[in-house]
Design brief:
Layout lengths: L3 E4 L2 E3 L5 E7 L5 E10 L6 E7 L4 E3 L7 E6 L2 E6 L8 E11 L7 E4 L3 E5 L2
Parallel strand pairs: 2-11
Antiparallel strand pairs: 1-3, 3-8, 4-5, 4-9, 5-6, 7-8, 9-10, 9-11
Length: 120
Amino acid sequence: QVQLVESGGGFVQPGGSLTLSCAPSGSIWGIDTMGWFRQAPGSQRELVATMTTGGSINYADSVKGRFTISRAKNTVYLLMNSLKPEDTAVYYCNADGLRRGALDRPQLYWGQGTQVTVSS
C-alpha cells in the first residue's frame, strides 16, 4: 500500500521559515500533480500550492510571494518564508493521478498531515 510520507512541520516565530517535504513510500510509476493543502482549526481544508509534472504551478493568493513549491520527480517540497500566525494549520500533502504501475488507474492520495505553528 502506498502512503505519502510528510516531514518538516514544527513551531516557528512570525517571520521565520520552514520547509515541508513529501514523498510516497515504496516504488511507484508516477504522479500527475503534487501539492499542499492546509486546514486550520474550525476551517475547511484549502489549497496552498500545487505543481504538475510539466511544471505548472498554482498558489493560493494568501501565500504568493512567500511560499515556493518545487518537485524532484515524485518528491514535493514547500519552502515557507515570512510565516505569519494565520499560516498556522495542519498541512497535508496531496498526490493526484498517482499510478503504482504504468497501466494502473490514477488515484488520489493524501498524507497524514504535519502541524505548522507560527507564534511568538
